[in-house]
Amino acid sequence: MQSPYPPRPPYPPRPGASPGESDRQLVAQLGGAEGGSRATALLLARHWRATHDYAVICLASSSGSAELVAAAAFHRVFGRANGGAVRPQLLAAVRETVKEWAAEDRISAALPELGKPTGGRGLRAARGVTPERR
After folding, report:
1. What is the pLDDT along the chain (134 residues), one digit of tens a residue?
2. What are the residues whose beta carbons fall under 8 Å from the beta carbon of 42, sequence distance 6 or more?
3. Which of 54, 56, 93 lies closest to 72 in space, CA to CA?
4. How far apart are CA 126 and CA 96, in angstroms?
5. Which of 14, 51, 74, 99 is most buried, most CB within 10 Å of its CB?
């Protein structure tokens, strides 16, 4: 028999975000003047931590460079907003940004984390995952 009192999260829901608003709906609002900044703020709030944490992993460093990479990934994904799940696009954008920046000598000189063999340099040397190899 089911309990008449279902479990609830230990924290209240975030104010301002209705649970029915999907990432797809928010991405559709990005180009509009009315809800664009609101949609951007909600998407950043939902996905910043995961994107930043993945940038830390890719760089093998928790320095400020991870924040730069995460911000660049958001810029890249929001600029081409093609719908679909946002988080996988952001994580792929982080990986591609680190690989591209590690290949650029001027950027690598400014961000030494990109030269680590376990960080950006290692990603640059790694072969990309294509659908045939999955």
Report:
1. 566 776 666 666 666 555 668 888 888 888 776 767 888 889 999 999 999 999 999 888 777 889 999 999 999 998 886 777 899 999 999 999 999 988 888 888 888 777 766 555 455 545 555 555 54
2. 16, 17, 21, 26
3. 93
4. 11
5. 51
- Are the C-beta atoms of residues 72 and 51 closer than 8 Å to each other? no
Number of domains making up the chain: 1
In a domain, 40, yes or no: yes
In a domain, 44, yes or no: yes
**Does residue 134 sit within a domain?**
no
In a domain, 133, yes or no: no
- Would you give the DSSP letter of residue 84? S
Q: Side-chain half-sphere of 19: how many Cα atoms within 13 Å?
A: 2
